[in-house]
Protein 1
Amino acid sequence: MTRKITTLAIGLCALAAQAQNSGSMAMRKLQMAEFAISHLYVDKVDDNKLVEEAIVKMLSQLDPHSTYANAEEVKKMNEPLKGNFEGIGVQFQMADDTLLVIQPVTGGPSERVGILAGDRITAVNDSAIAGVKMSTEDIMSRLRGPKGSKVNLTIVRRGVNEPLTFTVKRDKIPIHSLEAAYIIQPRVGYIRVDRFGATTADEFKVAMADLRKKGMEDLVLDLQGNGGGYLNAAIDLANEFLAQKELIVYTEGRNSRQNDFYARGNGGFQKGRLIVLVDEYTASASEIVSGAVQDWDRGLIVGRRTFGKGLVQRPIDLPDGSMIRLTVARYYTPSGRCIQKPYERKENYNADVIERFNRGELMHADSIHFPDSLRAHTKKLGRVVYGGGGIMPDYFVPIDTTRYSDYHRALVAKGAIIKCTLGYVEKHRKELAARYKKFDAFNERFQVDDAMLATLRQLGEREGVKFDEKGYERALPLIKAQLKALIARDLWDMSGYFQVINATNPSVRKALEILNQGEYRSLKGRVYPTGAGNGKNNEYTSKNNDRMIKVKKINEPVSDAAALPALLDKEGVGFEPIANVNWAEYPYRPEVKFRVAHTDDAILLHYQVKEASVRARYATDNAPVWTDSCVEFFSIPASDGIYYNLECNCAGTVLLAAGPAREGREQAPPEATSLIRRWASLGHAPFEERVADTTWEVALIIPYKAFFKHHIESLDGQTLRANFYKCGDELRTPHFLSWNPIGTATPDFHRPEFFGELRFER
């Protein structure tokens, strides 16, 4: 017994010792509890599961959007926003326990080997997926896989007696965030954005250019049901509409100072009438865009009050690939309105949309009441707007409850409407393709006939939906529109679907009514500008923004950073100035210039600086070198929203980090920073501030392998967004200079929207 007591005492002492290095008493208690359970509990326990449940329980005490996700959930969560995944490239629907190909992705791996719309995939690598009650998730896991890997598919094709076998080489498959873009009426374009992902801004610009060629002057931007996404994507989209230095959004939290995001003034739709469609499921990034447009009186918001998700989450990556998304700040519109709705009681928060319906808010605008304390005014016309939860539209459009019935809802819930269209298209695909060679012909002439409606009713009965004549007649116009729209989707794409269904959408109809009847300009107090300002107060003209460098390719190997300046002289690589004083309160401008080149495997950088004082306090990588005499290089090497900040003091000590925003950045591991070869004219020993005119240089050879979040094989022929800086936060004369101008109110280098371009020559 004495021996057991001694062992237990030793264990508890060790437990206490383990917790000594922790910060707070709460943290020490948590560590002691975990250690005790792991080492002293009578039965074997799963440490990972215990910790996960503890994290989940802690987060559940906070707000509704602070969450934990395991590694697999993180991967699934990020895929729709990154803009691509790796797989076989088909749009499909499960029909009668079989995977039916609706459309192969144009130019994708399945189309390249000859898989057609209407094919049924029955087996993957000789493993049956049809008729075995396999979940859609399990089927997708078999079809997806790393780029370059191969998968064998067994296909059943209508009109072919024997099964067909195809070997598909998986590839990157794009995920588009724009679902539709078309001319909805003469001179009016329509663009629907489904989510804010890494490629949203680029997709929008392409769509805008195409619509302008077709005569678009005004725009209806549809954000109905858009649940949000990347902050940078929302900023980039709002930038398309606003003038330079107009505030888009700002964030602020208990431990996060106010961070302002401004328009650059280079947007492609600063003129022309703009209407933004929203509803009760429009959230987060969508509310940022809607709030900015409304607050600057740039356009009209039409629909119903938005969701009210205005909390900023910082992703915190955990060692096993899992992630905590922790709320660190709130979003505020340019007029100072908080987007976030109250969340004191989570059960009420999650049921808020239902409560809005029950109290009549979705049907009657006069059911919505805001206290005067939440009143704000728009920036140009001074109109009254309210904060405290979501964006209230300028024109309210109620839900038309007369279009729906319980019978229709049951048909939708049981999948009868989709099954009806899938069967119809599979049976009549060739006939439809021959009759309607273009979508416009289909949209104009195709009618849902009685035979199809009879098939739908029969499918409903088979799925347990008892026929209700009154409910059927009440919802018949909507049923016909949905059937026709789904057929258009299966024959063409989602744009075809929305061109059909929008003819019945009350908010879309209201937007066109406003444009057609002159309400946009004539209503008192709602006179919206056709432009976005005259730019008289702009500090920078457009010719100074988005600077560009053609980065020369050097074909001989470079390994010695000390030899880099002479090599760049020999190759004729010229210098660029870092000379923009963006903030009047920091007027000091040291003389700074840089030059950049590249090889097959590295970026080459050389800085020359002359300043009134220098300091190199830090000699260990990933220290706060920005407080020293520091030069910096920020760049975006991919389209996934992640950018790098490489910062180097005058002694050659570097900091390298990556992430999608200023908050929550991940520092590079030592094996990445050690790859960067450096030379410093002042030597590499640390020293305190020397107040005297000093000229110094640093040269950096940055291998592509140092970009630890990406795999970069070559930059030949590519364009990178980037900016170059000089700073000295804690020097006797603090200063903050940039190569490409920055349009924020306070110093902030973490602003990818103000990056210029590096065009890498081959």
Protein 2
Amino acid sequence: MRKARSTSIALLVMLVFAPLAGGARAAQEEGFSGAVPYAVAADGQAATGAVDGMVFAEGTGAINESRWGDAIAIFTQIAQKKTDHADGALYWKAYAENKLGKTGDALASCAALRSSYPRSSWIDDCGALEIEIRTRTGEPVHPGTEQSDDLKLLALNSLMQRDEASAREQVEQILNDEDASGKLKEGALFILGKKSAVLALPEIARLSSIEGDVRIARGEENEKATGATWERAVADLPLVTGYNLVTGAGRAEIELEDASTIYLAPNSVLSFIDLSTTNGVPYTELALLSGTATLHVQPYLPDETFLLRTPSDDNLVAKYPSTSYIRVTSYVDATAITPLGGGVLVAPGVPDQSANGQTLYYRSSHRIEAPGAVDPSAFADWDKWVAQRIAHRSAAMNAVMKEAHLTSPLPGLAGMEGQGRFFDCAPWGTCWEPAAAVKLDEESDDAEAVLQPELAPASFHLHGNAARLVSVALQATGAQEAGAASQSPAAILQRDEFFPCTPAGVRYSMARDPATGHETIVDSNGGESALTYTWAVCHAGYWIHHNHHYVWVVGKRHHLEPVRWIRSGRTVAYVPIHPRDLTGSTPVNAKYDVFAVTRKDGVPVERIMPAPDRPIEMLASPPREFHAVYLRPLARAEEPRMEAHTIQDAFPGKTAIARAGIPITFDRKSQSFTMPVDIMRGNQMVTVARPISPHVAGAQPGSRGTAGSASRGGSSSSGSSSAGGSHGSAGGSPPAGSSSSSSGTHH
């Protein structure tokens, strides 16, 4: 029996997409349920000596012999006894009822199966049967109501036959849903008559840590908005295509979507040529124009690519499943590569000939000899610092992965170590809440039995990277007031407020110029957030309501903001995403706390409960004021002093003095770096500014070689400013200036 029914859904999908006309005719003549010609008892369904198993076998025999009335009687008897075979009996009862034309009874039997056995593996079979029945009666099922990909495709195909406009809308939602599987997208496109889906989004990348003087140029659009070409970089700053990072007397750690890290040494220049994902697969292309970077690269998906360019035309590549831990120093005319423990990135065609700690030199993908002796202590302090960072981070990541029951890392996961507790939250999986919420839950268990104040809508006040709820009013009297006196409003509310992933524009306060009336985004803290877990929980997983507050559910990466936008009456609000949210359906969490956009009295958000007597409407896109992308406000900085060096500079002779570096200048118009070059014009030597290397500086943001950004998901240089660094805007077209190239609801 298991063998027969386990193939039924697969057969149905094959019939839907069968390239042969015969297959299509078979589906039409037999109906969906006719794809199962025989019902055979197997895999323990008819356990030896089990009476109900023997009766079940009699029922399957009646099915095989088309004795529909007998089958209904037998399977009704088994279903009423509620034995181990009861759920399968309800399916075959519905199957036989449909064959006799009793479609109402068949639908009722499937409803009974869903109600009595919500986790039964027979539900998909009944789902296919329901699709057949409703399609035949002119009531096609919408794909969003079905759980499995196979049933969604069957429903979508039936909808296409009856209502092509609605089907095309459903296909568009599936293609724009980054949570939809590749199988579902391919099937939806097949139904639509297209070949492949391409969903390109910005990669989840951030400046995870800085020390000392680190400056950043965030693109032409940011300069237009802020008037600043260069700004002081801060930790937890989202990084997108087109950004440029420069260290003076400072150093930086960069974390990519696959949790790989790059460590940028002092006096270095790094350009982000392409940070994107295509159908969930990251592509990282950087250019080290000058200085030193240590790479700890660990691709986790097939087809994932990491590419580091240097001015000497050396392209260093790492692809899944290779890992690399190397130090790279970039000169104008050479690239130095030093393995530090693990694989090495090398130019294509150049074999790995070096042992750990041995430095090799390349130019245009060819090995060259060093022009002098290497000082073994030159990078000792830097290598030690990087090794300590990697060791600490790896230990923290492994510890959190073990607690979270994960087999692969998530970006920001190491920052969750020691910040809260993981716990089982079946059926959702593993959940997490911060230490403050755990402590408040424990302290308030007894108090809540006596004190249960009714909370009026509380306002968001900005604190760090997360919005902190502060009580506006507590409606408590008598004994409740006495109890409230023993707890501060913050203590009462903090356990109810945990959702730090505020959408773009909310995390910053607005300052209005009294002279012009123009509003300006003002940073709420101007520095690094104390909430080290924010990056992880805002770029992966879901949210459920637990013990009167939201808790995080461990889950997959998300490139869009983890919220969905709704309207109730005149109130517009966002709500955290839930594991069972479906495209086009009311968010599950909408029945709990939602966060209303108000902008009144200087308070951008209020925590409210939707009015039960008003319907909730899903918004196709965020409110108008959330369409604009607000980058995190940073302090302005002067253009950094930058220098390029030749390889000869690193190896001065005994009597020679190393030459001063070649000055590097940032060209605002082209968003590229140049350096002076002497050329002959006629009979005269003149100095002109040229890109450091046509190979590097000539590549436009988002251009992957000759492929271009359109084909591989390149993004604009303006970036995104979503809270916690979330990229893009869930629920509609990407905002102007956004680096997202996709639209649509999150689920």
